[in-house]
Write a structure and sequence with these properties.
Radius of gyration: 15 Å
Helix content: 25-40%
Distance between the termini: 18 Å
Order of helices and strands: EHEHEHEHEHEH
Largest sheet: 6 strands, parallel
Structural class: alpha/beta
Number of helices: 6
Shape: globular
């Protein structure tokens, strides 16, 4: 049975993008790479328009074991939440956005129902390797640091350069 790497991209990003292709190429000999599909994507809302519980149910049906899950930005948020349900072998979160409980910001990118669901949550207790860029938004840096995140020097909110290298190195371990 091959190891599986499930990827949740950031809002507006695709696995066909250059940086995700570099990630896939770097780990292809160790993992079967499987994109997780969020069928409710919508240009106006970062998580789409369905309730969060429906999105997580859809993701749960797509995941088989053994596995590693990696998510970037809003994909990291979904990876974090789905991990508490499917219990992956490894979880890698890149630039987890501040969208849980009292840290919820940027309401304009979520539906009213998603805001209600996320604001009622607390951070799930699930071990993860967390990365964030030193040049990211202060709220994002605060949340990722709170979770024991690794700060990537001179990195922005983009999976590229040193940020991408650090993530690839962790996945290859």
């Amino acid at each position: 049975m091959s190891r599986k790497l499930y990827i949740l991209t950031g809002w507006g990003e695709r696995l066909m993008d250059k940086n995700y292709q570099a990630l896939i190429s770097a780990v292809r000999n160790r993992y079967e790479v499987i994109p997780l599909k969020i069928v409710t994507r919508n240009p106006k809302f970062c998580l789409g328009v369905k309730p969060l519980r429906d999105i997580l149910n859809s993701l749960e049906k797509q995941i088989k074991e053994p596995h590693t899950i990696i998510g970037f930005s809003d994909g990291a948020l979904l990876a974090y939440l789905i991990a508490t349900i499917v219990k992956p072998n490894h979880l890698i979160l890149c630039s987890l956005p501040p969208m849980i409980g009292k840290d919820l910001v940027d309401h304009k990118f979520l539906t009213k129902e998603q805001i209600k669901e996320l604001s009622a949550m607390d951070y799930p207790d699930y071990p993860a390797k967390v990365f964030y860029g030193s040049e990211e938004d202060k709220n994002l840096k605060r949340v990722n640091k709170k979770l024991g995140g690794i700060r990537i020097k001179n990195a922005k909110h983009k999976l590229e350069g040193d940020y991408l290298k650090a993530v690839i190195k962790k996945i290859k371990k």
